[in-house]
Amino acid sequence: MRRTIFIICALCMISALKMTAQDNQLTADEKKQGWILLFNGKNYDGWVNNDGKPVTAQVEDGAIQTYKCGGYILTYNKPFANFILKCDVKMDDPCNSGIFLRMSDLKDPVNTGFEIQVATETGSVHGHGALYDVRAPLVNAGKGAGQWDHFEIRFIGSRLITLLNDQKILDVNLDTYTEPGKRDIEGNHKFTLNGQPRALHDFAREGYIGFQDHDHKCWYKNVKLLEIK
């Protein structure tokens, strides 16, 4: 009886392992669902710097390394509208980086795209997991410098939901930000157009995805995206 139970458990474990992909690979289920692997773990095929400069960063241990990548935002070369984005992130200490979403003008990514902050700072609109300069995360779900965090970002229409290590940290409806400069704390947010504050509601609903080089080491791997039609 014990031998039978052992065999059943072993078979279940083998089955589970088959469903789990290695780093920078899609699982069988992800392939069936239509997920796209944005980073192959070997080189920067499909990636460019937002300012057109050559990508000079090296892949480190199968991960994107944005530090000194040659530009400001290392950018995937295809725009997306509605999507679920997954990636694993590890920070140096200290660290300031970011996951940029829906950048509509690569010459001005700061004012035309949204940023999910990646930083050793926590608990503010500039802290780890925040919608940068707009809303602080609901909880501090990060593991800290030197540990891999798992992000899942769902950006569909005006709705932006972010999970960090399987905990919901953001749930934002851009359609509620109709006033120029409006954010969740006192003062205007950073986004401007021709020098004037912008309303988040007015941002483009399609754009580019990228990772920021802000003079600190930060690693990204298992970068996967599912387009929502």
- What string gives the helices and strands in order? HHEEEEEEHEEEEEEEE
**Rg over alpha carbons:** 19 Å
Put simply, the count of helices is 3
For the secondary structure, the number of strands is: 14
In what range is the share of β-strand residues?
Answer: 25-35%
Largest sheet: 7 strands, antiparallel
How would you describe the shape? globular
User: How confident overall, as mean pLDDT?
Assistant: 92
CA distance, first residue to last residue? 50 Å
Helix content: 10-25%
Describe this structure in words.
The chain is mostly beta strands and 229 residues long. Helices cover 12% and strands 33% of the residues. The protein has three helices and 14 strands. It has helices at 2-19, 28-33, 109-112; strands spanning 36-37, 47-49, 64-65, 73-76, 83-91, 96-103, 114-119, 148-156, 159-164, 167-173, 192-193, 196-197, 208-212, 218-227. Strands 1, 3, 5, 8, 9, 10 and 14 form a seven-stranded antiparallel sheet that branches. It has a five-stranded antiparallel sheet with strand order 2-4-13-6-7. It starts with a helix and ends with a strand.
